[in-house]
Amino acid sequence: MISARMSRPAKVLLVFGATMAVAVLSAACGTEKISVPKSSAAYAGAVLFSQRCGGCHTLSYAATHGSAANIRTRLVTNGPNFNARCERPAIRVLYAIENGGFSGATMPQNIVVGKQAQEVALFVSEYAGRQGNEGIGQPTCASRPIGTIPLATTTTTAAPTTTTPPTTTTPAKPKKAKAPAKTTPKVVAANGPKIATAMISGLGPVLVNAQGHTLYIFAPDNDKKVTCVGGCAAVWPPASLPTGEKAVASGAVKQSLLGSDPNPSGGQVITYAGWPLYTYVADTATGTATGEAVNLNGGLWYVISPSGTVIKAKS
Predict the structure, then answer these.
(1) Cα–Cα–Cα angle for 201, 203, 209, rounded to 5 degrees
(2) Beta strands in the chain, from DSSP E residues, in sequence order
(3) Which structural domain range is residue 75 located in?
(4) Same domain, 303 and 238
(5) pTM attached to this predicted model
(6) Each residue of 229-246: pLDDT tens digit?
(7) Cα–Cα dist 118/233, whole Å
(8) CA distance 22 to 276
(9) How many distinct structural domains can be found in the chain?
(10) 30 assigned to some structural domain
(11) Partners of residue 294 on adjacent β-strands
């Protein structure tokens, strides 16, 4: 409070000085901006990161400061400081976005989704870790590959064509039609990706791909069609079938149960007993099935037996 005994000139100077101080502080608060060039493909991801992730994470390229300055006084909502922490490849960042981080304890799932989630993942993987200090003998963040994220494909509709009505001519004398030649239906040989089986502890024999990685079915597919696309397919890559090839059964796998289904993102996906098959990015080693009975990306995921039975619980 200003004293009543203070002279008018002194009061004016004091009020003027306080006003100027507030103005200077206000101006300083808005000076930091996103430093990613607008012409960069990562700019859209930087804007989304600033809007959705700035309250919990620090990343100077997006002008965010949500990480704790002191680990002893950190709050549960203070996330990692991405100025120092390297996050590569991009598919790892996308996995964390879609699943609430790697622990799932605080970060909400799908804070951004679809194409926006892919844009944020690519931005973070490109700009995170630029101020980090790697240990002796450790590779720098810039030397680690960013990798790619399979983006949803777009289709274009061809412009309608116009036809000119034919001119009237004198009909020619009809010729005797020839009988159609007999043709033999083309049979596609089973020369494509191999589908085999492997024993998984507590689950028994389950389907695996040629590399030995466990194959899963997605409950929302309802043994009819592929529904895991876009960001979902980045975490659960479909078992793709090359054009003109047919999946090959190995061991106890039944060739009669193997088939394929169109992928909305393009190409074909191998099916078994009608179920489209997928792998899981978290299964980094063969003989593992960490995706069994997991509820992610809109539904439950299960392994499938050689008989075509969906295994929903460990024995």
Answers:
(1) 90
(2) 58-59, 64-65, 194-200, 204-208, 216-218, 240-241, 248-249, 258-262, 268-272, 275-276, 294-296, 299-304, 310-311
(3) 43-143
(4) yes
(5) 0.46
(6) 988 888 899 999 998 899
(7) 12
(8) 62
(9) 2
(10) no
(11) 301
